[in-house]
Amino acid sequence: LAWANVTNTAAERTLLLKVGVSSANREYEWVVTAADKLQLRLTDNSVPTTCDRLSDAAITMGAIHMFASTYDATGGATAANGIIHYQDAAVIASTATNQATYVAMEDLTASLRFGESGDADKWFGGSLLCAAIVSGVLTASQLWALKALGNGFWGLSL
Questions:
Q1: pTM of the prediction?
Q2: Residues 131, 16 contacting (CB under 8 angstroms)
Q3: DSSP per-residue codes, 97-157
Q4: Could you tell me which residues come within 8 angstroms of residue 31 by beta carbon, excluding any fewer than 6 positions away?
Q5: Tens of each residue's pLDDT in the chain, 158 residues
Q6: Which residues pair with 16 in a beta bridge?
Q7: Which residues, including other chains, have CB under 8 Å from residue 90's CB and lie 6 or more apart?
């Protein structure tokens, strides 16, 4: 999850990723696409193939919002069905793109990076206040509680 003020640009913006320099060292990428949609991509390097879930509409930009994407660790050909996107603790309508050959992500040696991908065109555009990874799938009510705490900490309205 992340609190961010996403700037409207024509480039992909990285919130969080675990991707190495080599294309054979990819695990996941959480981005705002060039079309301003929230996307979580999961990569199975053994195949190799990637599945993802993409929001159906653009996210809100130009103000600080809490964004989250959860993944329930579903593996196999329907892995992207286990992803849910949120903005301000509300589910965002989205579409899964599954791959028949996808099995699972692998625990590789890539560094976890917040706000940058190493590619000049994928730096985060805007203000990234805070980002976190949690173990387990958070519910909308848990995200709302975190939003209330975070917004209180930063002096933002709910």
A1: 0.92
A2: yes
A3: E--TT-------SPPEEES--SSGGGS--EEEEEE---SSPPPHHHHHHHHHHHHHHHT--
A4: 12, 13, 14, 15, 17, 38, 39, 41, 122
A5: 999 999 888 888 889 888 876 667 889 999 999 999 999 999 998 889 999 999 999 999 999 999 999 999 999 999 999 999 999 999 999 999 999 999 999 888 888 888 876 665 566 777 888 888 888 899 999 999 999 999 999 898 87
A6: 30, 114
A7: 140
